Amino acid sequence: MASEKSSRFVILYASQTGNAEWIAKNIHQEASERGFVNECYVMEEIDKFDLSKENVLILVTSNTGDGDPPDNATKFFRFLRKIKSNTFLSHLKFTILGLGDTNYTNFNNTAKRLEKRMIDLGAAPFYNKGLADDAMGLETTVDPWIANLWPELIKVCVQKGKDNNNTQVENIIESVKTLSINGKTESNETSLPSETPNGQSVDKKMGIASGTKIMLDLSELAKVEQFTALPRIPTVICKIIKSNEERIINSPTLPTLINTPTPIVNTRLDAVRCLTHPEALKRTIHLELEIKDYREKLEFIPGDSFGIIAPNNEKLCLGILKTLEINENEANQEISVESAEGTELPSHLRNAKSTSIIELLRYGVDLNSLPRKALLRLLAEYTTNEEEKKTLLFLCSKQGSVQFNLLREQVPTLLDLLITFPSSKPPLERLLDVLPPHQPRYYSIVNSPLVNRDLLHFAFNIVDYKTPVPYNVRKYGVCTPWLDNLSGYAKEINKRVPLTTDINIPIFMKPNSNGFAVPSDISRPIIMIGPGTGVAPFVGFIQHREQQIIAERKLNNIEKTFGEMWLFYGCRDIEKDYLYREELERFSENGFLKELLVVISRAPNAGLNGNPKYVQDLLRKRGQEIYELLDQKNAMIFVCGDAQGMAKGVNDALADILVEHGKIQKSDALKILTQWISDKRYLRDLWS
């Protein structure tokens, strides 16, 4: 009968950076402890589950790019699209948890699409979906969503022991989430530092980072009598097995534990050019990689992107080893990572065989991402100092949520946490249970293969900034400072410097699933919008079409129609950070670029008396012509760059153009833009 409870349920997850996988497996573990029979699979493992036979389903999914599904959801989406019957899932009840970011216009688009498709196929929600926002902190939504899941789940799924009025399991779990404090703190002064030196100090002699202590205001801790909404102590998953005590694993080559969607190749760093003036707000570097030995593996067109496998900072890795009291021999000894009984290794550690602790720190786990509460909970379990333990529990409780957010503002590394709580000495295998996977860094290709098939060009800003006042701690990225170091810290603006040393950069091609690439139809007009480094792929677009036009002219195809190319570009200072100025002005002068429209945001008159300040202002100024390109010539729109402000501003400007010149309502204009995104006529490559 339809009202009967299901004997089990299935969790399906799709994860790009590891967050959704981690959350899904935690739901799986807690559900098992609560007496629910359940299975947990990644969505692409469609041969391991059968939706036609399942009655209850929990979906957990993140997003990639501008609301696109993660790579490991592609097969599942394709499977759902092929189903024609609108009653195929009429037997199934489901709920969904989405992990998104409101910095992107299509917030949690994957979760919303999944929900709609499931309902279209006849499935019914048994619990309201959760849409977590990384901009505000995922845990703000995820934790209460999971807490409220259980009473809804019991309505549709059998809970062992619960039907016999046995609440022992639930009481044990809830007691872990609420802890009374025996002996209140006498004052808010603890052994933890109230002030921190600015910047990251380094042990010069050892070449080891010593980290930065975190600033904490513990005045509220003295008033707390008990901690509530504590995260569960993370499940034991990883076991480090010493494979061979005599064998040392510390090779300059990439370890086998790294998973990538396409094969990794070692390209050679061929040349470097600094694109910005020494006084520019940001340093932007252009690099060239030689790929002539990998032509078959590295086919590309402008708009494609590739991933770089960069190691975590070596001084940071050594600092963590020193703090955890792991000596050099132990760090380099051959080990394997295996799963504890009844558990499954996270996907990023499944190939961690014949590796070493130092390799795991360099390439296996993320040492820089914003800490989860689960990490603090774990650190508390291995803390011998009672004041430190109390502080860690406070930070991951409901009572310490304000201080937890202030801690995250300081962007602490794992090392920063360990030196702030020096009595916490967790085993490395327990840290593997909670640390996210180390991620490749993705870059857009700048050049066209029609110009040079043996080189891959790309550009990037050096990630080097200070955390907000009052912290003022200098922070660095993982990949860009590493590339800057390898290429010799180029300073002179627009001087190409050949590099003769054999420096290898491991890369892999990223499958282009969103269609952001130069159109094959050369008669179609293109509107390109890319301020800052967002202009990089469009240099390749214009190069590519230039070569196509030259080839057609050589064939005497004079009658052939070539689509107009418009570029909207923005920078701060025309003399300091106008990227690719020489190339863009040449394209314009030679007629390959119909319109080169540049706005300077720090110009004295920018934003005054009707003068444009940002690219969206330029769009509105040329609104009539833009509308004609879109309405009469079927132009495509490409946007590349910052998701937080620019992309939304551009979307609003395009909607305003459709309203003003198309004489339609704003709501209809937004629907048109949404449809264009779906039709891949309006394409965006965004980052936050």
TrEMBL record:
Region (Disordered), start-end ranges: 184-203
Positions of the FAD-binding FR-type domain: 262-518
Protein name: Methionine synthase reductase
Keywords: Amino-acid biosynthesis, FAD, Flavoprotein, FMN, Methionine biosynthesis, NADP, Oxidoreductase, S-adenosyl-L-methionine
The enzyme's E.C. designation: 1.16.1.8
Single GO cellular component term: cytosol
Pfam families: FAD_binding_1, Flavodoxin_1, NAD_binding_1
The Flavodoxin-like domain, residue ranges: 9-150
Top-tier EC class: oxidoreductase
Any one biological process term the GO annotation gives: methionine biosynthetic process
Gene Ontology molecular-function annotations: [methionine synthase] reductase (NADPH) activity; flavin adenine dinucleotide binding; FMN binding
Compositional bias (Polar residues): 184-201
PANTHER family according to UniProt: METHIONINE SYNTHASE REDUCTASE, NITRIC OXIDE SYNTHASE-RELATED
